[in-house]
Amino acid sequence: MQLNIGQHMRMSQQMKLAPRMIQSMEILQLPIMALQERIEQELAENVCLEVRQNDPEASSDTEVQLELDRAREEATAPAAEQKELVVDTDHNNEADFERLLEMAADWPEDNLSAGSRPSSNRVDEEIERNHDAMANMASRPQSLNEYLLEQFALLDHTPQVREFGEYLIQNLDHNGRLQSSLAEMAEVYGKPISMEEAERALALIQSLDPPGVGARDLKECLLLQIKPDTPHRDVMVTLISSHLDDMYHNRLPVIQRKTGYSLDSIKAAMEEMKHVIDPYPGRGFEVRPVQRVTPDVAVEKDDEGRWVVRLIDEYTPQLRISKRYIQMLRNNPDQATKDYIKRKVDSAKWLIESIEQRNNTLRRVAQAIVDHHTEFLEKGPESIVPLKMQQIADRVGVHVTTVSRAVDDKWIQTPRGLFPLKRFFGGGTQTADGEEVAWDIIRRKLKDIVDAEDKRNPLSDDALVEALAKEGYNLARRTVTKYRKNLEIPSSRQRREY
What we know:
Blueprint: H1 5-29, H2 32-45, E1 49-51, H3 61-75, H4 94-101, H5 103-106, H6 120-136, H7 144-152, H8 159-169, H9 182-188, H10 195-206, H11 218-224, H12 233-242, H13 244-248, H14 252-259, H15 263-276, E2 297-301, E3 307-311, E4 319-321, H16 323-331, H17 335-372, H18 374-379, H19 389-396, H20 400-407, E5 411-414, E6 417-420, E7 428-430, E8 436-438, H21 439-452, H22 461-470, H23 477-486, H24 492-495
Parallel strand pairs: 2-5
Antiparallel strand pairs: 1-4, 2-3, 5-6, 7-8
């Protein structure tokens, strides 16, 4: 079957659009601080791009666009007929963006013949490159402070404790430790905070994963990692509390004489420490300079009591195309100069449109997420409900990949804390009454049941299944076992206290 002219032109246009569309996806994925850096870079590299000033005498965007259109018509030469396809700035590129994501489906293999295209392999390679480029824009590894903020936001605490806790987390070093005393941190915090509230915030942080975070020194870091059921617990506590230097220099007889423990007990405890304690709990996370997480969006109630999302973009420069270079495009007689300016103008137009599209998509996606989670905002973590990205994609009317890029590495400021937008996505199950419940709630309920159990007669996994069933959560035993292990809750035998 021969490829008709319309199909060939559509394929050609899609292949030409791909690099620009991939750039749009990159812009969509950028968090606010990275976007600002990208804008500064583009301003430095593109002479046709400038920051829009609040000048009442400055030309409006419409005037600039009309002049640009006239200049392009006057400057267009026959040689430019083969130039890369450029999307009109008056045209919303979301349809093109979505079309790229489904490009493979638009090019059925059986409609392409070897005689009507360069080769079957070339189209396959082009598709593969486009999809590889999208796949390679993967989420960057999560940093330690982002991981802790995500956990901390789901704990119950007062607004004062929440804000100070977020402040402490963002001042931990890459090992997960505070570099100053709690009193010093409270003093430079900048807001009124009592030591009782400060200690509460620190205690909550020290309860997070990985064990040992939030410590103020090595000794506290090690002690935080010893659990009630840790083998040789008492010996380990004594060694860490009073004999770190002796252990470092392997002065075991000195430890034996001072503590009364046998050499075998001391050696066994030290060997256990090698396996269960990490002096650097922050290792394994992406190491970057510790900086404050800046939210891209915030949610607040409007006058009608509805939760409304707004972009936090007051520090992002507003861009426009330089009128000076539009005039040069019209008046400069040199064709090479005109071609150069046209390329820069096209690049500037695409960047401006990509940023506008990013902001619009992010706002719509975030609003759809907030609309789904109003109960969480009103009542707290116990009211969070399951949500899949496909649900938001269907509601907003975009491809699910667009939702994934839009929420990647973006944070939202809520009255209940600072959250990564991705945190609001998660599966769930049904209660005995048929109500959808998020896995996060199941995990919280499981932890509450274990915390309240009789430690002399802890609940087996079968008993935990029954306890959850009484709360309306009917789960298989293997599911309960999996979540118990994910929460690092030991087995009933290991939890038993004598």
